[in-house]
TrEMBL record, chains A, B, C, D, E, F:
Pfam families: Asp_Glu_race. This is Aspartate/glutamate racemase family protein. InterPro entries: Asp/Glu/hydantoin_racemase, Hydantoin_racemase-like, Iso_Racemase_Enz_sf. Signal peptide: none annotated. It comes from Herbaspirillum chlorophenolicum. PANTHER family: PROTEIN DCG1 (PTHR28047:SF5). Belongs to the HyuE racemase family.
Amino acid sequence: MSTPLPDGQTVFVINPNSTQRVTDGIDAAMAPLRMAGGPAIECLSLQSGPPGIQTQHDVESVALPLASLARSLEARAGAFVIACFSDPGLFAVREAVKAPVLGIMESGILTALTLGQRFGVIAILDASIPRHLRAYGAMGVQSRLAGELAIGLNVTELSQYERTLERMTEVGRRLCDDKGADVIVMGCAGMAVYREPLQQALGMPVVEPSQAAAAMAIGRIKMNWHGA
Amino acid sequence: MSTPLPDGQTVFVINPNSTQRVTDGIDAAMAPLRMAGGPAIECLSLQSGPPGIQTQHDVESVALPLASLARSLEARAGAFVIACFSDPGLFAVREAVKAPVLGIMESGILTALTLGQRFGVIAILDASIPRHLRAYGAMGVQSRLAGELAIGLNVTELSQYERTLERMTEVGRRLCDDKGADVIVMGCAGMAVYREPLQQALGMPVVEPSQAAAAMAIGRIKMNWHGA
Amino acid sequence: MSTPLPDGQTVFVINPNSTQRVTDGIDAAMAPLRMAGGPAIECLSLQSGPPGIQTQHDVESVALPLASLARSLEARAGAFVIACFSDPGLFAVREAVKAPVLGIMESGILTALTLGQRFGVIAILDASIPRHLRAYGAMGVQSRLAGELAIGLNVTELSQYERTLERMTEVGRRLCDDKGADVIVMGCAGMAVYREPLQQALGMPVVEPSQAAAAMAIGRIKMNWHGA
Amino acid sequence: MSTPLPDGQTVFVINPNSTQRVTDGIDAAMAPLRMAGGPAIECLSLQSGPPGIQTQHDVESVALPLASLARSLEARAGAFVIACFSDPGLFAVREAVKAPVLGIMESGILTALTLGQRFGVIAILDASIPRHLRAYGAMGVQSRLAGELAIGLNVTELSQYERTLERMTEVGRRLCDDKGADVIVMGCAGMAVYREPLQQALGMPVVEPSQAAAAMAIGRIKMNWHGA
Amino acid sequence: MSTPLPDGQTVFVINPNSTQRVTDGIDAAMAPLRMAGGPAIECLSLQSGPPGIQTQHDVESVALPLASLARSLEARAGAFVIACFSDPGLFAVREAVKAPVLGIMESGILTALTLGQRFGVIAILDASIPRHLRAYGAMGVQSRLAGELAIGLNVTELSQYERTLERMTEVGRRLCDDKGADVIVMGCAGMAVYREPLQQALGMPVVEPSQAAAAMAIGRIKMNWHGA
Amino acid sequence: MSTPLPDGQTVFVINPNSTQRVTDGIDAAMAPLRMAGGPAIECLSLQSGPPGIQTQHDVESVALPLASLARSLEARAGAFVIACFSDPGLFAVREAVKAPVLGIMESGILTALTLGQRFGVIAILDASIPRHLRAYGAMGVQSRLAGELAIGLNVTELSQYERTLERMTEVGRRLCDDKGADVIVMGCAGMAVYREPLQQALGMPVVEPSQAAAAMAIGRIKMNWHGA
């Protein structure tokens, strides 16, 4: 990302949790989207955020801090990505800044709609599913949803690559075989490393939502489009 | 777009009609999306296509020629965009090539879903609206549709900039005031020159669908995602 | 509400804004729902809330304070009502306390579904409508929505009873005549005084959402039902 | 229910079948909703009704008798509840009387919508499910339906408490595990005794629809709201 | 309808009201559907029915009499058509007899779905519209509904051909221009005489529902298909 | 079909593939629909069509040839049926000719909507299901879809009657038991011979779509209705 960029040309991908390891995972996933002549893509943790976004309390707790952080970055910002699958604070950030703001859930799903007819979502936690379903309803895309299932692993298990991939594969297969999914959306940020092997294992397209959102953000910067 | 690109790195934006002036308009609209390190964006007319895509016959007539053309370009292609608002042959082209293929209708609408809650579409011809509605139904996004109205200008009128902008503005305002739209999608290709003034006149975001599709295509190339 | 009640028998109706006059209006509207042997109904302002809930920022700013306030009242609480038509923090409060929690938007709409086939909503501000539409989508009840229109009065006008009733009547009539509504939901709290005259003027049922929610809360307390 | 009530202050809960044992079960379930200053809640059997409402013929046969009975009670009535999960005659009774009329199916489902994101219904008979699905469609709430399954017990088995609870639990679990329900509606009247143990067994909220309807009716009386 | 037919080969079109003039209008409309070698089409009034089906009471009052009448005709019946746009007793009659049973509302709408993308309905009475909307919801076809509007003529006006055609044309035009309908369904039986002139006046297809239902019934007899 | 018919009185059922055996199967299935005074029903293969319609390419390849063929037959045509479950070229043929045009998918499903509440579809190939789902979305009937599953037999297996019936029965049972279907649509043409035994085996109505379409076409000819 060598050469200095003019103001208003950076995509800020904000991880609403404070776990730098997650932000690092997101950052690594951005590599293919960094091009000479394209916008810089900068990944940040929300320092005041919780270690992870698991509960509704977590979701609510980051909305205004995300808006403040976005506002503080506005001079340099071309676009913002909220990098958590619950799209916390999405509409608050949109209201706070002029630049386009994309949530990874909405971007992941909108991208999936171009890759298959019925999308399945692999969630981490069962408890997040009702929240996600509300968001799909607000988006008006439920008729395209095949189903959402959680891998249900604890923190220790989630740190084990093989165990996690195995569970994701099992759940993805059930979404395909029992629910009729023909494209999968990963229902979380920071797990881009699993995308390719999961796609191989399942034999159907898998969308990593942070990449989907950043990809959309690049074009949005270039065209300078944002909501009213 | 100076430096030579590796194979498989070009976005081919194919205008399914044979009117070079339309292709030129699309090509001009691509300017902001061309980045030094980004994919080349090449705009082509379908030589065998009709002068415009107006009837269902026109739509059907270009499906397989588009698939053939895409296949012939496949070695150099990173992605394809079908640049007609009826998304003719979209699924045939997807079947024909490995690279990602995006329609401008679907991309325009998916983009609009991130810019407002209810999208309105400005069509050229009344007769296209049922065809578009079928496509929105297939996409499963009708609950987000505020309405679609046609400007209903003849070819002579469409060649008059002021007259056309005036009608688009009238129709856009009716979509907003009577139908509740808060984001507008232009229901045709090759009219990107109207986007900015229309957005100014209406005071709400206006999506030009060829740009929306090409923007999504860039990211798709970089991530190398395509349907199963 | 004379006699002392056992713990866990009070309906707390929380106005998420800090304007006591609004809370007083809500409190007055609760009169018919106060019965001997029934739960106490206590109306509170959220002291830390903004003077009104108008923006997305306002909505987000009260979510966790509402959850905290609810938790602090939990020993005495039988149920909670969030008395703002954006249902701010609804799911955060549900997560925070064991007692049932009802939003006035959801309760107002669910009640309207038993009074007519297509509900119209009279909003105060145009800018709130997209937020409301997202909520109707999340609830899955859009096919019953006839439309939502704002009265668009400024603060001075809103303080004038006749002017406000006149505008509500105009908007209500348009919802009926142009959009096909056969039941009206008032899209705000604290305006219960208009319900009866508006219903008379329109000749169709009008739902005041704070009353709708408190009414549902009473039964919920008595049956001791709450979410998982 | 000691002190005499003014006219128009009684909730009449009408069991459309003539089986007094069912009416007694409904009556017992009303206990928590009877408050000193609240409306009386009187449960009646429709004497001319069939022993149970199982077929479409049964449903149709009670519609006008219910309307007549309601009209005959109108002087004392504050509200009516039709206590059969097919909501027989709901719109005929609404047309016949001025007082509010609630069906237990609609009330049970509307209540469930505030307790979970996707409701499952436990029916008694497979043959009733298409009729219920038509009603959910008319209500416009199908996108919130996880699924409906019948316990399929015969009359003898239904009279065995343990057997019935066991089957309800099995079916409820399948609605949760296979269909994604997070709240259950009991698809019949007169079985309130199973609600609490079923909720315990399933670990998710269970709605008994007669109670849900009577609870809504109490508020409706107090506010004196009814359809146009 | 000269030659004697085997048993089970007659389409019975039952007008659920007792007004012979309406039945005569239906009967006249059947002429084009009577073919040598095809089923006989016999039109009957329900003698015990009200003079017209206007209220919910009227609808309910005919359900079981229709079932009885159908059963009494079963030996000679190949199919039944319920010739009232509220499809009264449709599911009761289906349950009562083995032969296929079609409602004119459902058949009119299903036919319209093959003639245009968005259907408009011309009702006689405003008060019937909510009942019709419930039925469209139960059918799951609301997303294809452009709108429904009533002509609102009294009995005297309805007896005046020119006045009635004029109002139908006005309402049909509003359904087209304001609501986006491209096919019209006549929301009543016995007015087939207006179909052709209305179609001419509106320049779009107009479906007369009794004819639509009888046409479907003929095929159903020939194929001997009926519900389970 | 002995006696000569006037022009414009023949139903042309066009098999878009060139396999005469399939056309023969369709032709045999038309027998019950041929009546002395009814329209002739003539079944044709599209000579230029592929041996089967399996891919999107196949679907697109026949659209304009179907339109040409229909136009060439127009003088003698009363109606057209496109006899392939993907309804290829349906809207192109409608545009090309004045006579009514019916697709077997739409007709099969519309017919199923009168025979049960939730339809299941038995497809031949998994790969066709997304295409079918898009069509159901365009039709706006997805909320009535229980599910679609493919039998997944190869060509050799498909030529074995017992093996095919066995697989259809298995898949039909799964659509009923797991997905909740109460009516089945056969998702292909030319297999009418399986309809009756499949219906017997499943105990629920089974719709053969070519027959459903031809049945609707007969009435359409007689009434002379077609799209605008």
